[in-house]
Task: inverse folding
């Protein structure tokens, strides 16, 4: 009985890791990075580089680079244990914290640069009667307005308590 349940869990974990990797790559995140994150999410304790290598069949260099990226994203932390030379890595298991951290990083890496460019482009001067200028200016202004609204929503999400955020979102759809 235990062996059957254990095999089910092992297979389920593998399926989750594969699915998280696929989802990550569809969102523009490196597949291996998403898979390492998934492995750490479904592991109760911290794992060493060697354990990650073995579980995912990836090289030491790939694990080191991937874990460093996950640490930079704020999704994984390093744990040092007294008397041990090995480094251990673990992921926050709170999905709301994960969502907020990903939103914060994506905002910084993707939305902030777009907002900066749109701000510059919105200051371009031209003849308001010129069709090319009018079309350009309207497009830039409309996209800038949308991007600022997305930015405000992400800011609210990053700062919010989970229940308040979802309560606010659900009110919109009532």
Result:
């Amino acid at each position: 009985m235990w062996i059957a349940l254990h095999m089910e869990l092992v297979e389920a974990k593998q399926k989750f890791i594969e699915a998280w990797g696929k989802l990550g790559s569809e969102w523009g995140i490196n597949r291996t990075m998403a898979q390492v994150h998934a492995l750490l999410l479904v592991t109760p304790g911290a794992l060493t580089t060697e354990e990650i290598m073995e579980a995912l069949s990836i090289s030491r260099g790939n694990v080191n680079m991937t874990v460093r990226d996950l640490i930079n994203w704020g999704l994984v932390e390093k744990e040092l244990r007294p008397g041990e030379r090995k480094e251990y890595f673990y992921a926050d298991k709170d999905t709301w914290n994960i969502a907020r951290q990903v939103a914060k990083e994506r905002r910084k890496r993707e939305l902030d640069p777009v907002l900066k460019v749109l701000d510059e482009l919105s200051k371009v001067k031209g003849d308001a009667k010129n069709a090319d200028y009018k079309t350009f200016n309207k497009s830039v202004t409309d996209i800038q307005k949308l991007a600022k609204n997305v930015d405000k929503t992400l800011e609210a999400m990053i700062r919010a308590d989970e229940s308040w955020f979802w309560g606010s979102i659900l009110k919109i759809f009532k």
